[in-house]
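Fold it.
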Amino acid sequence: MSRTSGPLVRPTAAIAVALSDELKQASPVEIISRARQWAPAGRLAVVCSFGTESAVLLKFVADVDRSLPVLFLDTGWLFKETLAYRDRLTAYFGLTDVRTLIPSASALTMKDPRGDLCLCDHDACCAIRKVAPLAAELASFEGWINGRKRFQGGERAELAAVETDGRWLKFNPLARLSRDEVEAVFEGERLPRHPLEALGFASVGCVPCTSRAIGATGRNGRWSGLGKTECGIHTRGLVTNSPL
């Protein structure tokens, strides 16, 4: 099921199911390699938050192809430590195409002129600062790779190796990894840690929506007490959920 270059096409659910079945026992490197084989040249991207577990995903990406485009969402609300971690991991793995995406200035002026939308409407803030910029950048791609894992729970508990997401195929190479296996990659490869992890941050997103979760793991500390677990970029149909 290889692809050749040509017009952008919308992958079908049948393709996703077939690939997911093929890769259900595959390693992260095998899934990334298969994604690279499936997508025409230049039409596969990696989406990475450069959060506390991102080094594991990027390690496997670098093992396959350091030139794959890596898309990073700088919302304007990130910790300075995350921006520094992006730069450190980019150099550490020799990544050659890390793209920093920012929100539309006009959208911010129109919908968040005072910069306080994050305090009153978290979903709208995520839509402007994350969902819309990513949807716009992904317009020229047919597939994307991300670092979600089943052990993170919630909507991620039943992740397949491959799924459809609007007009894209989404590849989940780390889906099957356990928390212990992720930790083993960090330890075995001596990967750099996010600077805030040592300060008690189990998961790191935007400053207003991230809190310390001492002794916790996974995504604890994100949107605490709000009943919110996802920013929106992993909600099915990224295009239809974008305010573009």
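The chain has a mean pLDDT of 86.
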